[in-house]
Amino acid sequence: MKKYDYLVIxxxxxxxxxxxxxxxxxxxxxxxxxxxxxxxxxxxCIPTKTLVNPVDYKxxxxxxxxxxxxxxxxxxxxxxxxERMWNHLNNNSSRVLEAYFAEENVDVYQGTGYFTGEKVLxxxxxxxxxxxxxxxxxxLIASGARTRIPDNIKGLENIDYITSETFFGEKFPKQPxxxxxxxxxxxxxxxFAHIFAHLGTKVTIVQxxxxxxxxxxxxxxxxxxxxYKKSGIEVYLNSEMIExxxxxxxxxxxxxxxxxxxxxxxxxxxxxxxTGLTSNSDTLQIANTGIxxxxxxxxxxxxxxxxxxxxxxxxxxxxxxxxxxxxANYEAExxxxxxxxxxxxxxGEAVTPRRRARYDVVPxxxxxxxxxxxxxxxxxxxxxxxxxxxxGKFPYGYTIKPFAMGYDFGKSENFVKVIADxxxxxxxxxxxxxPEAAILVQPYVNLINVGEHEFKIIEPEIGFAETARERKExxxxxxxxxxxxxxxxxxxxxxxxSEVSTWASGEIEFDGPILNAEQPIDSx
Length: 524
Hints:
Layout: E1 2-9, H1 15-23, E2 28-32, H2 38-43, H3 45-66, H4 78-101, E3 106-117, E4 120-125, E5 134-141, E6 145-147, H5 164-167, E7 179-183, H6 187-197, E8 202-206, H7 218-230, E9 234-236, E10 239-247, E11 250-257, E12 263-268, E13 270-273, E14 277-279, E15 312-314, H8 325-341, E16 364-366, E17 372-376, H9 379-384, E18 389-395, H10 400-404, E19 415-421, E20 427-433, H11 437-440, H12 442-449, E21 451-454, H13 465-473, E22 474-479, H14 484-488, H15 498-505, E23 519-522
Parallel strand pairs: 1-2, 1-5, 2-3, 5-15, 7-8, 7-13, 8-9
Antiparallel strand pairs: 3-4, 4-5, 6-14, 10-11, 11-12, 16-17, 17-20, 18-19, 19-20, 21-22, 22-23
């Protein structure tokens, strides 16, 4: 058995912790079954936004042309878009792999890791061989997730379909589809619909929920729905796909409305499944350990990212909290600090309290047209939690910048909505629909995150001696809004231009040890 200080499964956001371990002089084992860089780099936010942005420029041009402010034709080059995307993905993935191979105290295992015991793993290597058993003092599971394949659609197993994994793989199209049915109505579904509808594809969305983007308020969803209809996207809401068959290269889909039972038959060249994610924990043989899973198969973690086995942690998609890269980055930064960067005394004992994750200030953005973004509670969540809310709403149309962008002054469905607590006047959440929503929401993310915050215990049954002590000793913290760490400790939507201004504060270096900027407040 080969022993390491630190072993990590996955090379997405987990690389933040891996780099911290290397900097701390630890011996490190990295297990990765696919391309280095994780979901975000290879089949998620980076490639999709690389395709979205040129489409957004086309929409902007078409709007200006309708106003008589532009002339000629705007034609997108799909081949060039694809080549630029693949060059970026492949070059970055290769650079990450090469950098780790070059590290003296790092061993890279390219294959599928699985547990044979409590903190013991083997790797089924991609070359067909099997590694020796591996163990480590500290193990991080960042194994990600994959598209959930529905098991209730008759005939699905007999046809060829697309997922985000295969789209950014062997099924990447040489040309935009002639017609495409997208099953799902969340971020992945709506972003793909946005991309291809403006590339000339006949797009149809089939959504189980009565609304598109149901995590947003209904007035947000309605703006997106109406814009999609204007773009020629056909949308079936509150509907199930019950059967699919393929004849002569054409797929025929049977759609049933959940409320009325009405049946519709639609045809398309291809089917994209955007039906949510399922955990990759089933590949890890978790049953050989004491690591607990929830009923959906996600790895249970507490506010310190600990699992139910001491010394084993989990971040990102693997723990099922949020399937967002900036959440995984945030978790990884917390874990890197807690494990490798805290101030220690001469005996090597940590003397700085650990950081904790909070999930009530998670921002998100969907790069539809128009963009949508949010942070904190939506209206229903706030009301369900017993808040007496008050709402402020302001349209884009009465500010001059949208007019300069080619929108009609005073005529815009786009807006910013701020939800506040009537009792203590604090902001509970923000929802935005309109251009650059991902940038506009970021100041609110920072505002809600700073100041005094009462610690929330997550999975109270998970935690060991240090956790029990800190939970008892510290019940709240204060984060000074005047410090760079007030920005550094805040989630920043990825990818968005707000990352440039946010990450600049992370480049500041102070003399002395690295401290936890969240000043813990004693329980008494």
